Amino acid sequence: MSETIMYEKPAISGETMKRILAFRDDRNWKQFHNPKDLAISISLEAAELLECFQWSGADNEVRAKKAAMTEELSDVVIYALLLADRLGIDLDAAVNAKMAKNAAKYPVKDCWGSSAKYDALKKKARSESR
């Protein structure tokens, strides 16, 4: 069973973001970081993260592969941050806006304990209101 982790600090500090950008800039890689290739890189790294779970059977957490999962998840996050930088997206504002949108799509009363997608939840709510 996994535990809930309470975050008392930002997931990525300003210093970490500066380090990511400096790493890129020190190697003159910004020229290669167009939105298409960064998005592809996110997908590729996410696939590598999925490989950690491949053939794991009933072991949903695969604790023995936590180090590999940490590395692959870090790659996904780094590419996502680089894409946000390239597109000029304020991730804090974007995530908060998306959370508000998700809250409207998935009201607690309709989705508590359900993994159904929002459109299935809407159909269920409509049929129950009749």
Summarize the structure.
The protein is mainly alpha-helical and 130 residues long. It contains six helices and no strands.
Describe the structure.
This protein is mainly α. 63% of the residues lie in helices and 0% in strands. The protein contains six helices and no strands. It has helices at residues 14-26, 35-51, 66-87, 91-105, 108-111, 118-128. The chain is extended. The N and C termini lie far apart (39 Å). The model has no long low-confidence stretch (mean pLDDT 90).
Record the SSE blueprint.
Blueprint: H1 14-26, H2 35-51, H3 66-87, H4 91-105, H5 108-111, H6 118-128
Keywords for this entry:
130 residues
Secondary structure tally, helices:
6
Quote the beta fraction: under 5%
Largest sheet: none
CA radius of gyration is 19 Å
Characterize the overall form: extended
Give the CA-CA distance, first to last residue.
39 Å
In quaternary terms, these chains amount to single chain
The computed structural class is mainly alpha
Runs in which pLDDT lies below 50 for 5 or more consecutive residues are none
Mean pLDDT: 90
Total number of beta strands: 0
| SSE run | HHHHHH
In helices, the fraction of residues equals 55-70%
